[in-house]
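Why does residue order matter? Because the sequence determines the fold. Keep that principle in mind as you read this record.
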Amino acid sequence: MLSRIFTLLTLLVFSGGLLAQLPQNCSNYERLLMMGDSWAQYMFDDNVHNRAMKTYGHSDKKIRSESYEISLFSDPGDPTASYYAVSGSEARQWRDETTYSWLQNVRNQLSANPAITLVVFSLGGNDVLAGRSDCGWYKNMDLDPTLASRGCGFSDETTFFDKLESDVTYLIDEILAIRGDIEVLISNYDYPNLNVTTCWAGCICCNLCDQYACPKRLDLSYDVNGDGNINGTELITDAEINNMMMMIETRRQAIADANPRIHFDNSMGLMHHIYGYDDGLYPNIAPGSTPYPGPAPGYSPGGNSAVPSDRSNFRLVDIPLWFDAPADPIHLTAGGYFYKAKNQMDRIIFDHIRGLKDEPLYLTTWSEGGSKDGYVDIETNNINTSGLRMGDQGPACCWGGPDNDYRSILSFNTASLPDDATVTGASIYIIRSSEDDNPFLHNDRSPVLDIKNGFFGGSSLLESTDGTAAADASNVGCFVGNGDADKQAIRIDVDAGAFAHFNKTGVTQFRLYFDYADWSNENIRFYDGSGTAGFTQEDLDRKNQPVFTHVVKRKTPNPDGTFTEEIVQESKPELPQEGFVFEERLVKTERDANGVITETFKLVMAVEHPGLAKYMNDTYGAPGDGYAPFIDITYTVPLPVELSYFSVKKSGRNALLDWKTESEKNAVVFEIEHSQNSRQWAKVGSVNASGTSTEPVDYNFLHQEPLVGMNYYRLKMMDEEGQTEYSAVKQIRFDGFKEMVEVFPNPFNEAIQLKFNFELNQEVNIQITNLLGATVYTNTLTISSGVQSLNIMDLANHSSGTYFVRVEAKGQTKIVK
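Structure:
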């Protein structure tokens, strides 16, 4: 909303650089686009949507944006530049396409990226906060006799909101007109806090209120009696500011309600529910004690509409030259925006990216729990029905082989599948409870999924032989995510070749494990079908460690540019509480003449998010307190088209699809759908059907320029009544990416060479990270025809060690250690 008011270290999107080697059908691509004002800019720069999608098992999806940072009180930058998350921008500016190119920038990105089907839209707040000085809203504006003649385009409060609604509607309609599959999520705001401390000792009585809050409160007010001052009842109150915010949202809610392709994110009062209030100006609000913002229809606000959000929920302001001060009254911290993104995931985004929205038939079911799932230790032949576990555990004292090698068993009752169903997709979700040196973060082992029609052992109960019994198909899953945080989901997409092994009359079992075990302790634990966590006593002890509400740290510079850190003060310890989390917030930084930095931290207590996403929390009736593993299965049932043959083969660099029907009845068209991962599908062509026929008919279709790597195809067959039937999924691999990129020498000293052998112009993303995941080099460039080389020379100053070179092009990734 507000012009950007402090320097932000941009968080880089980093997915998979340190993952175990994954099957080839895993891929990363953008599904969302972020556009709008500084709330859009901060949410994108804080990487909160990518983090939320990772939390929900969709780290292979990303959000796209180009954000622009400007200084306080400046106009929103170059109106012709390419960005479209613009701090300080207003809906009226976006509509002025003769001056501002931002809307056209969005059109260009959506046209160039057909996989993006959801636009997160954050506009309208700045139009209001522009205030009296710049044709915005203000208290008692209907009593201002000069309003109609000021050239703002409105004459009273009602016509102001009419104009704002018209501008927002125009922008959204323009976005929806780009493609029929695009939807818009209107991202709303939360209660601000203009009660900024007027004098802060951190910078020798800086007047923080004058940074923005006090002038803005005056600008949102009107001198009714004409005495030249705004005072008494003329000055807008906190409750009136909150009410003004809700008036904006009422108009934007109406826009969403009028169109099924538009969604509304109600998060008004979300910070109150999550963090409570403890500012001193109002009675305290405990986290979780106020309502959670209500979903549609109704959109009831959460929190307490008479109280601003707590000051600790807002960002620090960079006050030159040495201080970060609590002066921002509008923008949330990265933690606050993360909760907002998770709220959007619960309400809209998860269902949008889950892959079920356009599927005619699907089944969701949970692991059976109890004695039917758990893990087996194939070293000791012991079983455990409490929680799930993958990985190994070595001897306590000595080198040697593993003492434990854990394999998890999941049982799903899939008898609800119709007898004549053809499975077209399946994804399993498991929720992490804890870990011991997470094996997903090591690249010397790979996760494996096995499938069994029925039981691995002699019955549905967990048995010691389940860990090694024969499977119907082995290594049939793409594991998406690395489970690097508790209560984070890993999604496992089942390969198309395993769909035939789903049991339509009973239980289908899956086995999860790593293909290599050694002497080290590398294992990860998940919740089972009863919602029981795979905790160890060490986990429980760690969870009960005390935390400190205030901590002061001193960082003393070293000659080599690093810092020596020490804790110089800690407040009284607090014990963790079930259902609550502590977040460390930096509230003040100071630097003395010698370069010594003193940082003051406050631990803020927050309500744990009410769940990961739909079907992952008890709000939606999921079993196991919301943490039970579940599976999504999509399928089709036969229609009056008898398909006797369907194949795909290579024709040069193209994919040739051939199929034959034995008979057709009122058939209209065959649509050819293509996928990178057998989950998300896109139409790439169509062939008219013969209508009604009792004789065999042959068809074919040539898909030009398939992707390097695995390509999946299926036929969508439609009849005159609009009924659809899907064929089985066929797959074909086009090799070449790994051979098209070479990295040498390895090991290297000061520079490495990247050799590209691309046939066509390709945009290439290059990223080099160290073992901690920190990025030491990043670049995006276009490789033209022929062989090109790139020397990376600026690594000489980095310490010796292990690095990962990640190269992405055309939806494919190569990682070199």
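Confidence is low (pLDDT under 50) at residues 1-25.
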